[in-house]
Amino acid sequence: MTPEDERFPPVVSGAEGRRGADTGSASRVVHVVDDDDAVRRALAMLFRSAGITVETHPSGLAFLDALGNLDDGAVGCVLTDVRMPGLDGLDLLRRLKECGFGRPVIVMTAHGDVSTAVRAMKAGAADFVEKPFDDQALLAATEAALGTPRASGAAGADDAAERIAALSPREREVLDLLIAGKPNKLIARDLGLSPRTVEVHRARLMARLGVGSLAEAVRLAVQAELGLPARPVAPEPG
């Protein structure tokens, strides 16, 4: 999303930046935490167009300062960038966990930054989205965070663990290395396989897991508390 700044009204941080539809029931609020003013404006416009109230915060510290003013009756979630000066997204996650913050947090990561996404989810993030993100995918992730109770995680973890358990030893090893952020060529070198063989294993494990992207596989693996790094398996001709 790269809209021109003049298309948007000035973004005001915190409670003064609230906009959204009054549905007459509990508000749905997304707290956008990003140091980039243009990104905050674009996200505010996107969420407001979907009838979701938005509060914007220019830094992790600004959001922490606003915690005392949050509406306890609102259904809310947080969408935070990872790379920010002062307090980055991962540090914000840890601080929120320490203070008992119970609302879902979605982390925005750079495209292909799998290792950061894994660290974020292990630190307590409910989900992650990759930049540049698709508007509909971001809205879907946000709607899921707004509508899914945190307590539902146990059932989800059981389902994820069952899917992971269905992988072959080699597929499991390839998945471990993918989650570690390694591209196919490095995985092929590490395992003594051809890049083509790695591609075949990757396609098969995606099909077994029932996912369409590496991001979805990462979510499943972290949810199932997949052990890293990969476990060695017997050599295989490649």
Automatic annotation (TrEMBL):
<keyword id="KW-0238">DNA-binding</keyword>
<feature type="region of interest" description="Disordered">
    <location>
        <begin position="1"/>
        <end position="26"/>
    </location>
</feature>
<keyword id="KW-0805">Transcription regulation</keyword>
<keyword id="KW-0804">Transcription</keyword>
<feature type="domain" description="Response regulatory">
    <location>
        <begin position="29"/>
        <end position="146"/>
    </location>
</feature>
<dbReference type="InterPro" id="IPR036388">
    <property type="entry name" value="WH-like_DNA-bd_sf"/>
</dbReference>
<protein>
    <submittedName>
        <fullName>Two-component nitrogen fixation transcriptional regulator FixJ</fullName>
    </submittedName>
</protein>
<keyword id="KW-0597">Phosphoprotein</keyword>
<dbReference type="GO" id="GO:0006355">
    <property type="term" value="P:regulation of DNA-templated transcription"/>
</dbReference>
<dbReference type="GO" id="GO:0003677">
    <property type="term" value="F:DNA binding"/>
</dbReference>
<feature type="modified residue" description="4-aspartylphosphate">
    <location>
        <position position="81"/>
    </location>
</feature>
<dbReference type="InterPro" id="IPR001789">
    <property type="entry name" value="Sig_transdc_resp-reg_receiver"/>
</dbReference>
<dbReference type="GO" id="GO:0000160">
    <property type="term" value="P:phosphorelay signal transduction system"/>
</dbReference>
<feature type="domain" description="HTH luxR-type">
    <location>
        <begin position="160"/>
        <end position="225"/>
    </location>
</feature>
<dbReference type="InterPro" id="IPR000792">
    <property type="entry name" value="Tscrpt_reg_LuxR_C"/>
</dbReference>
<dbReference type="InterPro" id="IPR011006">
    <property type="entry name" value="CheY-like_superfamily"/>
</dbReference>
<dbReference type="InterPro" id="IPR016032">
    <property type="entry name" value="Sig_transdc_resp-reg_C-effctor"/>
</dbReference>
<dbReference type="Pfam" id="PF00072">
    <property type="entry name" value="Response_reg"/>
</dbReference>
<dbReference type="Pfam" id="PF00196">
    <property type="entry name" value="GerE"/>
</dbReference>
